[in-house]
Design goal:
463 residues, four-stranded antiparallel beta sheet, receptor, 8 strands, transmembrane helix
């Protein structure tokens, strides 16, 4: 700006002298700032990286040096290696480990409060978990949809922990949104022509939930292993215990959900595990062929041809195994005491009248007070019948009336007597349920009057 003003002056006003003076002043100012700014930056501590980066740098260095030190015994056992040199290296690395560890402890003592360390440890674990999910996805063990959900969840958890110091209440979909989605599926299932679409979405939700729980189980297990190693190397870090408790709880919850799915949907879980095992073995073959090609044991063009032959099976083993959720309705009906007097042919005719429903845990199948035009048979899973308590001190709370298992049926009272539903029925575990509509039921009892008598007996016993 100063130079521009001087250059714009008329010639008689010592233009050249002023230009030289101003140019010198500008260059002097730049030179003085350039020489003085670095000490000022250092004095103010602006040249130091953020605390999180310094902590990560020291932790990474310490882990790398420890892993390198573990290889010294391999050098000794390999022969043709001086024990004196190995001893010197071992002493040198141990000194390096002690020095880095002390720097890490000093940094924590001087700059880290217990709350800050807790946050940083959570963030570190979230980053480790995200890497685990990416590896599972890259090997085809997680679908892209599930991987994106898990990665997005970890991103939200990281942001919440960094800025608020706590894990958010939910990271993907709120309870309200999930309830609205379920109501939409129920509404779609009653629209002509949309029942199959609603059922396909339910089956997809069930398979995706199982895959997500499997991923959470794997991620939690590996993070817990890393936290145990942290505790072994640094027993004084109190934050490790709190983070480990959270991960242990999440890991146990995922395991319980997997166990419930295995118990209630054994065919589906068996099919999913078979796909996983086949995919893991094929992936191992692929990686071994790549390693042999790199080492020169197998010609590259031969290895490429063999790997190409594995690509199609690997691609086919990606995704879901939702068809295993479909049970044989004839076999199911044969196990229901109500229909055991019917022949196989009659059961086959009846099975054609059933509508399949695949439900996740917590799905409301029947709402108290709504009109009833169908009854339901449980193929797999557990269904609980509840009603609002009539006792004054428990007003507004649910009262459990019954728990139904595979082979049981419900919803028959409203169907028989054309009255509103007198209770709410909710799935407790993943369920496969078959719905029998009123028209099909009335035709059935016309042909087999004894069936109505049996249904009436069950309904009377449940009153």
């Amino acid at each position: 700006m100063a130079l521009a003003l001087v250059m714009s002056l008329p010639q008689p006003l010592y233009n050249e002298t002023l230009v030289a003076v101003v140019t010198g002043a500008v260059l002097f100012t730049l030179l003085v700032q350039g020489l003085s700014i670095e000490p000022l930056v250092k004095k103010l501590g602006l040249n130091e990286p953020p605390l999180e980066d310094r902590l990560s740098k020291l932790e990474g260095t310490l882990e790398a040096v420890r892993n390198a030190a573990k290889r010294i015994p391999e050098l000794k056992s390999g022969g043709l290696f001086s024990a004196r040199i190995a001893g010197q290296l071992e002493q040198e690395y141990q000194q390096n480990i002690d020095k880095t560890y002390q720097q890490l402890q000093d940094l924590r003592k001087d700059h880290l409060s217990s709350e800050t360390e807790r946050r940083l440890l959570y963030i570190h674990c979230f980053a480790t978990e995200k890497v685990i999910y990416y590896r599972l996805f890259s090997k085809g063990h997680l679908s892209e949809e599930v991987y994106r959900d898990l990665a997005h969840s970890l991103t939200l958890q990281t942001d919440s922990m960094r800025h608020q110091g706590q894990v958010p209440a939910y990271t993907l979909h709120s309870q309200t949104r999930q309830m609205l989605e379920r109501k939409l599926l129920i509404w779609l299932s009653h629209l002509p022509g949309f029942a199959r679409l609603a059922e396909a979405k339910r089956m997809r939700y069930t398979t995706r939930t199982y895959e997500k729980n499997w991923g959470l189980y794997q991620g939690g297990r590996k993070v817990l292993r890393e936290l145990r190693e942290f505790k072994r190397l640094d027993p004084e870090r109190s934050a490790i215990d709190e983070v480990a408790q959270s991960y242990q709880r999440w890991h146990d919850n995922a395991q319980q959900r997997l166990d419930a799915a295995a118990e209630q949907l054994p065919e589906f879980v068996t099919a999913m595990q078979t796909r996983l095992a086949r995919r893991t073995l094929l992936q191992g073959q692929k990686e071994d062929l790549q390693a042999q090609a790199e080492a020169g044991f197998v010609p590259e063009h031969v290895a490429s041809e063999l790997i190409e032959q594995l690509q199609n099976p690997l691609r086919n083993l990606r995704g879901y195994e939702s068809h295993a959720l479909r049970l044989d309705p004839v076999e199911l009906l044969h196990q229901v005491p109500l229909f055991q007097t019917l022949s196989h042919e009659e059961l086959g005719h009846l099975a054609k009248q059933l509508r399949n429903l695949t439900l996740p845990p917590g799905e409301i199948i029947i709402h108290k007070g709504e009109s009833g035009n169908s009854m339901f048979l449980i193929g797999r899973g557990v269904v609980r019948i509840v009603r609002e308590s009539s006792e004054p001190e428990l007003q507004g709370q649910e009262q459990q009336l019954a728990t139904l298992l595979a082979g049981d049926f419900f919803g028959e009272m409203a169907l028989l007597h054309k009255t509103p539903r007198n209770a709410t029925c909710r799935s407790i575990t993943p369920c496969v349920i078959y719905e029998l509509q009123r028209d099909a039921f009335e035709k059935l009892i016309e042909q087999y009057p004894i069936l109505q008598e049996k249904v009436e007996q069950v309904a009377q016993a449940r009153k």
